[in-house]
Amino acid sequence: MRGGTIKSSSDATTTILKKQQTLNALHQTSFLIVISTSIVAFSPLPSLTRHLGSTVTAVTSPLTPQERAVKILSFLSAISAAIELFLSPLIGVWIDLKGRKRPSVLLYSLIAMANLGVVLYPSVGSICISRTVNVLIGGFLMIVANTVIADMFAKNDDQMGTVLGRQAASISLGFLSGSLLGGRLTELGERPAYGCAFLFSTLAALNASFRMVESVDLAKSALGSH
Questions:
Q1: Fewer Cβ atoms within 10 A, N terminus or C terminus of the chain?
Q2: How far is Cα 170 from Cα 32, in angstroms, rounded to an integer?
Q3: Are 151 and 218 in contact (CB under 8 A)?
Q4: CA–CA distance from 175 to each of 178, 192, 199 (Å)?
Q5: What is the pLDDT of residues 135-186, one digit of tens each?
């Protein structure tokens, strides 16, 4: 009886430590990925304007390169919103079936690859793809992050507000840092900006891959220890 009590206490301690590790990893990856997306949030307009200005159609088009760039970005925003509207419920089903960790790592990796595409082949097409991927997956990652927090703190709702507040602070700090850094890097061209974004998004993917523990398993362990 005593041995069973000690084992139960040890399992509960291990679960708490893993939960804290996963929570810290979630805050860190959210911070890193928001820095990444914020760096390139304002890069598409000057980059597209520059590329469109160097094309043959720039001579015959009644619109200036900047006006065409704005039109393209507006179209991409509308398309991204429509796609997110239909895919968000499917993302929820996907993370219920596959867990939280593997989808998170995949989504972070897709952002990294989209940014790398612009570094390797800067063009109107690669910039548009990166813009769409960053906007779409940024929204999907919010779903995953909120689900991870719900998994770990659904039974401890007295801590939920504190955890959500820290998560919001991580996102805000990432946005502030990324916006300031992105303004500097955009002046140097798309390769430095997207290269830096690739670095941060890759760090986010690696952090999630090696430091996060599947929150569904943690929730089951927590229930089993009671």
A1: N
A2: 9
A3: yes
A4: 5, 18, 16
A5: 999 999 999 999 998 888 877 667 788 888 999 999 999 999 999 998 888 8
- Write out pLDDT tens, residues 27-43: 999 999 999 999 998 88
- pLDDT at site 33: 96
CA distance 84 to 156: 31
Cα separation, 177 vs 188, whole angstroms? 18
pTM of the model: 0.86
In the chain, what are the domain boundaries? 2-43+89-225
Query: Would you state the structure tokens that stand for residue 53, as one six-digit string?
Result: 């200005």
List, as one string, the DSSP characters of 51-76.
HHHTSTHHHH-SS-HHHHHHHHHHHH
